[in-house]
Amino acid sequence: MAYKNFKLDIDADGIGLLTWDMPGRSMNVFTMETLQELSDVVEKVAADKAIKGVVIASGKETFSGGADLTMLEGLSRIFVDFVKSKGEAAAMQEFFEQSRKMSVIYRRLETSGKPFVAAINGMCLGGAFELALACHYRVASENEKTRVGLPEVKIGLFPGAGGTQRLPRIIPTAEALQMMLRGEQVRLDKAKKLNLINEVVPAAKLIETAKAWIKSGGKGVQPWDVDGFKLPGGPVYSKAGMMTWPPANAIYRRETFDNYPGARAILQSVYEGLLLPMDQGLRVESRYFAKVLRSKEAAAMIRTLFVSMQELNKGARRPANVPANKIKRIAVLGAGFMGAGIAYVSAAAGIEVVLLDRDQAAADKGKSLSDKMISEQVAKGRAKPADKDLLLSKIKTTADYADIKGVDLVVEAVFEDRKIKTEVIQKAEAAMSGKGIFGSNTSTLPISSLAEVSKRPEQFVGIHFFSPVERMMLVEIIKGKKTGDEAIAMALDFVRAIKKTPIVVNDSRGFYTSRVVSTYIREGHLMLTEGVPAAMVENVGRMAGMPVGPLSLNDEVAVDLAWKILQATKNDLGAEVIDERQEALLEEMVVKRGRLGRKNGKGFYDYPDGAPKRLWPGLHEITGEARPGEIYDIDELKKRYLVIQALETARCVEEGVITDVRDADVGGILGFGFAPFTGGPLSYIDGMGAGNFVDLCKRFAGRMGPRFEPNALLIEMSRKGETFYGRFAPPKEKRAA
């Protein structure tokens, strides 16, 4: 039997080697076609007495990243078509059967009577790891980059091909829940210790070792299919179970505020499934999976955090008319915390870096941060001493602008002061070669105005990193009025080289991310002035889905920075564009009381040495005594936070700051943490419907002021019944609008 994606070879001992090698793809993924072929192989193996067992291996550099999630998007379209042609009941039945196809095939594999071994090389995640768990033995090749895990919760789903049932039957329930709820990717050493991997061997011996297990009598029966099997974490209703489930539920609610149906379904599937035999447990899991797959949260998260993010990472926003840049050498101007972080991630990507500051000592201090970060990786076993030596050798420190001559790209990351930046731009351009691109990491100063001092404004672009650079995955590329395609292409090629996700926006005060997140912080400030207790201001922010409360966020970015931005906005645009209540609050905090945020140990929080931060008890001296928390509508407060950010995003679309819906949603989640379960600020509006969103804005505007007034674009979309992903869909999205 011929297969397109697999090759089955049977050796003289009757042991099959099933090599998964999808043509035209750099990585194996599950598609409907792949699943059908795998099902055919399993049936062939089960029926052929000459085949003693099968080793499943990959013909790629890595095993598999799991399912192609566009396949799951397709299931939703199938459901809609079935509803139209056969009715909702038939559509639900068909959707259920289609969505559990992978689970059924895996169960058939593990009960076929023939032993299957997963021979894992490199990454093995999601549905691929669920396949490995269904196999009767797992062997992995020695590779420090190998990770195994079930990360589905990060895109709104959960392991629906048996992961919630097999994992807690292999490792203790608490460990299994933690791994799935975090979407944790486990390194080989830990996986071996947990028995998720049975053997780790040199790559050259991977297939040999896997076959040897079958040849030595390995059985095609799972432990949970044998009478007398005991759960490694103990029964649900046991002392061990009672030590697991109440705290698991409490932690889930503390971390998610019940915003994520996929995370809730993990708890439900494991809890209910462990009370049942395996086949019934799998059916329970499948029912929850079908339900979650049809949720608006999963649909939005898959689209934004998988489909859109992949498209952006692959260059969807890159000018097609510019040849690809191979970036070999860059300069980073400014060796402070931000500049040092940019130097580190660049050197880690194999790029040579010239790290420049006002004097050699300052530049060397910046490089020491790279030394510290890579040393921590070595200490944790995540890097080797040779990796450290190589990375540090890539960073040259200097105070001499002559050293930046010939670099492909300059990234300016000096203090946020126009005078200082002007001086640096002029010195750098005098030393650069004619072809080099200049990128500014400014987060507040308009790129077009900075480019006015440049002799080559068409080669001047904004490259806005987020702090800490090594952890934040987003980079905001800002196109000034005169920025050319070559500059945009270079910036995007650089971001791709350092393995970050780029968005491209047009120039504006605060660009996109800083502009929108400032509305979240402002709303927290205004709630304080209204008498909402500070703890409620913070907790409701997290309940709405934001990673931290607005006051905590303001402390992190600096309270005095918020004050400076407010004053700059007032000076440039007039007093009518700012809220005097926020101005009075910040003036008291910064000017009169010197509370600048975490950086000086006092802001909206106090930061005592050796103790957790705590809300400053003196806040009432500025805002007055807080009113009783029970008088406030929690749901309304949550919506205020999300609506004000989504509304500002819609204004960015109307003004042409945002020109691609993918940039808005991916940037919103990765850049300022907009509630991921919504799919991003524009998906939040689409999910609610433009008409409902406009009505909500008008209601808030009537009670809380004109900052909530819906813009003309939203009103027009409401009247026409339009969505952002329908009206402004990128070409690939038109079919799914």
Tell me what you see in this structure.
The longest helix has 21 residues. By secondary structure, this protein is α/β, with parallel strands linked by helices. It starts with 5 loop residues before the first strand and ends in a 10-residue tail after the last helix. It has 31 helices and 19 strands. Strand 18 and strand 19 form a beta hairpin.
Q: Which helices and strands appear, and what pairs or packs with what?
A:
Layout: E1 6-10, E2 15-20, H1 32-47, E3 53-58, H2 69-86, H3 88-99, H4 101-110, E4 116-120, E5 124-125, H5 127-134, E6 137-141, E7 147-149, H6 163-170, H7 173-182, E8 185-187, H8 188-193, E9 199-201, H9 206-215, H10 239-256, H11 261-273, H12 278-293, H13 296-313, E10 329-333, H14 337-348, E11 352-356, H15 360-379, H16 385-393, E12 395-398, E13 409-412, H17 418-431, E14 437-440, H18 447-450, E15 460-465, E16 474-479, H19 485-497, E17 501-506, H20 513-530, H21 534-543, H22 550-557, H23 559-573, H24 580-592, E18 605-606, E19 614-615, H25 620-623, H26 634-654, H27 661-672, H28 681-688, H29 690-704, H30 712-720, H31 724-727
Parallel strand pairs: 2-3, 3-4, 4-6, 5-7, 6-9, 10-11, 10-13, 11-12, 13-14, 14-15, 16-17
Antiparallel strand pairs: 1-2, 7-8, 15-16, 18-19
